[in-house]
Amino acid sequence: MVRDPDPKGRSGAIRIIGYSPTAGFVITVIATGGAHAGVTAWKSSGADLRDYEGQGRS
Known about the structure:
By secondary structure, this protein is an alpha+beta fold. It has one domain. It contains 1 helix and 4 strands. The mean pLDDT is 89.
């Protein structure tokens, strides 16, 4: 799931939410808008996790 621009960001970054098989859980990654370089990442929780788990459902 990609949110462009990041709804909580101020720098034009994008928010990417997805399952990481290596980590074994859903992660949220903040990346720069242009080069898509990773800025930071963390284990998803709250609204990010609810949105990811609910995607594709009507």
